[in-house]
């Protein structure tokens, strides 16, 4: 049984669709990369999956033990978020909000979970620091620790390496790969880095004038995937 099923999905704003006729399934342990041009609707799809906005039509189902509020989310970083005046610990702890329900404070277990994820992302030494004083790579680790507080099953990551230098980018991919392999967390990641998508992902969803969904091997045989391979070959010459 799939953890996530999207059926005949149409997403957009105020009844105007940005993406339609979308159907795909994600199973436990999959690593799905969502690729496509700027403005094609990747972030809108992710927000709809998270229930932050309703679909215009179609259905989103969760299964195999996954609940809709049990998905961890790392949003695309905005300038405002980069300047957020809170400590690292407070930001990581805020990932437990979905667990609190109507309770207006964090309990012992939630505080322990935050500490555990701070250690896992190796940001212990930064935990008292103010988030806005950190480097881009450190901030992404904090947001990953925060997303982990919401889930042990599925992470949705919106361009997690955007703006990071090559070394920190590689480190971020390694961390995500570790969460996928070691902790068995299903990954759904929006990325403009098709080379990394093809390296790490098990499945690809390519959104554009035409939509492709399939395994990485199928993608590389598809018109969209062949176009990518041709471009990459061209770069290397
Ligand atoms: N809050 C909003 N209200 C109305 N339209 C929006 C809103 N947010 C985004 N859009 C529009 O929806 C379309 C899809 O945007 P979206 O951010 O989902 O694309 P994307 O594929 O994630 O782009 P990028 O790769 O640049 O992040 C765009 O035309 C955008 O202008």
Automatic annotation (TrEMBL):
Gene3D superfamilies, A to Z: P-loop containing nucleotide triphosphate hydrolases
Domain ABC transporter: 4-232
Gene Ontology terms, MF aspect: ATP binding
Pfam families, per database record: ABC_tran
CDD domains: ABC_Metallic_Cations
Record keywords: ATP-binding, Nucleotide-binding, Transport
PROSITE patterns hit by this protein: ABC_TRANSPORTER_1, ABC_TRANSPORTER_2
Protein name: ABC transporter ATP-binding protein
SUPFAM superfamilies xrefs: P-loop containing nucleoside triphosphate hydrolases
Family label: Belongs to the ABC transporter superfamily.
Classification lineage: Bacteria, Bacillati, Bacillota, Clostridia, Eubacteriales
InterPro entries referenced in this protein's UniProt entry, alphabetically: AAA+_ATPase, ABC_transporter-like_ATP-bd, ABC_transporter-like_CS, Metal_Ion_Import_ABC, P-loop_NTPase
């Amino acid at each position: 049984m799939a953890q996530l099923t999207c059926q005949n999905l149409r997403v957009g704003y105020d009844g105007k669709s940005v993406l339609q006729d979308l159907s795909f399934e994600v199973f436990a342990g999959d690593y799905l990369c969502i690729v496509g041009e700027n403005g094609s609707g990747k972030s809108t799809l992710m927000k709809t999956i998270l229930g932050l906005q309703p679909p215009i039509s179609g259905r989103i189902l969760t299964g195999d033990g996954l609940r809709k509020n049990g998905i961890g989310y790392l949003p695309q970083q905005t300038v405002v978020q980069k300047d957020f005046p809170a400590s690292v610990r407070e930001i990581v702890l805020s990932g437990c909000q979905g667990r609190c329900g109507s309770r207006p404070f964090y309990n012992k277990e939630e505080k322990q979970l935050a500490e555990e994820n701070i250690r896992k992302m190796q940001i212990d030494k930064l935990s008292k620091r103010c988030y806005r004083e950190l480097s881009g790579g450190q901030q992404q680790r904090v947001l990953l620790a925060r997303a982990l507080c919401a889930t042990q099953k599925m992470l949705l990551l919106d361009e997690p390496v955007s703006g990071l230098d090559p070394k920190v980018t590689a480190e971020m991919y390694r961390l995500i790969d570790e969460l996928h392999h070691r902790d068995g967390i299903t990954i759904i990641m929006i990325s403009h880095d098709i080379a990394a998508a093809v390296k790490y992902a098990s499945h690809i969803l390519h959104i554009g004038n035409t939509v492709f969904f399939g395994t990485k091997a199928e993608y590389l045989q598809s018109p969209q995937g062949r176009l990518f391979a041709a471009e990459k070959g061209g770069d290397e010459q």
